[in-house]
Amino acid sequence: MSFAGHVFDMIRRNKEDREKLDQLRGRGKDARAKYSSHIPDISAEEYDRINRQLKEREQEEQKYYSRIKYLIIAATLIILILLWVIF
Question: How far apart are CA 17 and CA 43, in angstroms?
């Protein structure tokens, strides 16, 4: 294949890629339109209440995980101290 053949092949591939990108963009617009109709309308107060509940739940989970972490560290230290005393 000559140099011109390589150039024409590259041009053809670029054209195909542009067409595929246009198709993907169209699919994204269709999906957005389809799913946006299923989103319920909520008031600002309800939105704030949901956000507060989520933040509280996240804080409770962080407290829970930190307690577990501290218990594991404390147990490890106690075991190390006992081993040091024994040996």
Answer: 43
Task: Provide the whole-model pTM.
Answer: 0.48
Quick one: 7 exposed, middle or buried, by C-beta within 10 A (0-12, 13-18, 19+)?
Answer: exposed
DSSP 3-state of 42: coil
Distance separating alpha carbons of residues 33 and 38, to the nearest angstrom: 9
If you average pLDDT over every residue of the chain, what do you get? 89
Give dist(CA 57, CA 51) in Å, integer: 10
Cα–Cα distance, 45 to 31 (Å, whole number):
29
Tokens 């024409």 belong to residue: 8
Rg of the chain over all Cα atoms, to the nearest angstrom: 30
Structure tokens at 19: 């067409």
